[in-house]
Amino acid sequence: MTDALTDDGLRAGARDPELFSLVYRTYASQVLGYLKARGVEDPEAVMQEVFLAVLPRLDTVSGGLGGLRTFIFSVAHARLVDDHRRQSRTPVQLPFDADLDQRAESSAEAEALERVSPQEVLALLQGLLDEQREVLTMRLVGGLTVDEVAAVMGKSAGSVKQLQRRALTRLREQSAVKEYVAP
Asked: What is the pTM of this model?
């Protein structure tokens, strides 16, 4: 084993997959431990980068086992520094917590519901075709997705989108006529 990891062995077998496999098996766990201990975000991925950088340069290593170990860990250290620099430039990403969200703006849906009485909403919905009313009710009141509405109604997602578009267009037209006629 150690004969292959001498200067002559490294130069002679630099492109030999078995030599690389030997180097990897010998040092991978040590490199991984080093990267984990130093706080690398994804130590397994960085370890792979280290050995991908080492492979094409095995024939340049001198100093036998000590030189090879030094070379591998110098590459690992460089990748560690790169990872720490990347982490320092990348903002911390935290998951969204609705309980901590202090924005006070209401949604467009809430504002619309405040402006229009329930009776007016029912009157507007009565002016729609049954399928259009069904789609809007499930989408807006029920909060279902297009795919969920399609499954409930036994229709394709495209036909549900079309029904929704036509229903909203019809509601806009009704509102425009109401505003025009209103005193």
From this structure: 0.47
